[in-house]
Amino acid sequence: MTPPTKSGISRRRVLTGAAWSAPVVVASAAVPAYAASRELVVEYNTFSQAFDLHPDQPFSTKFGADSVTVPLENSFGSSDNPKSNGGGTYTPGGSLGDNTFGGVGFWLSAPLAPDGTYTGTSTLKAGSTFYVSYTIVFAKESQVRAPETWGTTGEGGIIPAFETHPGMSVTANPAVKAFNGAAYSYTFLKPTINTTTWDGDIKITLLEDLSVSSTNGKAAYNQLVFSQIPVLYSTTSSTYSLTVEVRAGDTPIEVTPASGSAYSATSTNALDQVALAAIKR
Fold first, then answer.
1. Which pTM was predicted?
2. Which bin fits 96, alpha (ψ -120 to 50), beta or left (φ > 0)?
């Protein structure tokens, strides 16, 4: 099964520079100036990070995507030790905690008012879909293999919602509602091999609404962390390249003003929002 694309454009034909786009801010279509000034907007984005835990040790390392055992502290998503590369825009204040960045996922804000305050509720609806794609290019055809943690085609599991994680990763930023804000299911799709390239996709389906509200005017965020499904190798050849991409499928977002509010709101969809991270040695 191949994840759907828009206008027939392959998900692989994404400009790397686009992965570093600013957070998306969605408002309504053109309306009179006064009405537009009363419109709430919602901020959201995807984020992705790939890492190599010990880049100088090809036979004793971890490389892939795993937000549990390898939380990386870098606001730009890249570092040298461990070696990492990130794309997209991380949850403001840290996708995994205060000043801690990394992982693969999606975030959204409470509605933002024209005066810069946050008010009301943003909700990513249950049933929303995402695809996380892994492409690994090996030096030789004889070295090509699936990640050690890759599951059986058509099978998967459920990642629950939780405010804090019992492992190394934490959410220390009070503006981020939860480490993983809503339960989702995941399914391993059939991978492909083309000479030295292994390519696999995971389909994510949201099982409950992901919501975030603000009642005090302050910024508030919620997020989904898809790298709770670790995709890793513990050994690798001396040269390789790894690309981790997360892309939003059908992802309706409802924007609801606070009760009694004078603001108006328009719902939106994060369809085809993409973040791409690439790393090699």
1. 0.85
2. alpha
Residue 81: the pLDDT is: 78
The per-residue b/e assignment along 187-205, b for 16 or more CB within 10 angstroms, e otherwise, is bbbeeeeeebebebbbbbb
pLDDT digit string, tens, across residues 141-179: 999 999 999 999 999 999 999 877 655 555 556 788 888
* Cα 280 from chain centroid (whole Å): 20
Which residues, in sequence order, are CB contacts of 87 under 8 Å at separation 6+?
A: 16, 19, 20, 47, 48, 49, 77, 275, 276, 277, 278
**CA–CA separation, 119 and 121 (whole Å):** 7
241: nearest Cα among 106, 144, 103, 101: 144
Sign of the C-alpha dihedral, residues 26, 32, 36, 39?
negative
**Residue in the structure block whose two tokens are 């400009």:** 15
Amino acid (1-letter code) at residue 68: V
Structure token digits, residue 83: 């070696």
The string of pLDDT tens digits covering residues 1-38 is 445 443 333 444 333 333 444 566 554 434 444 445 68
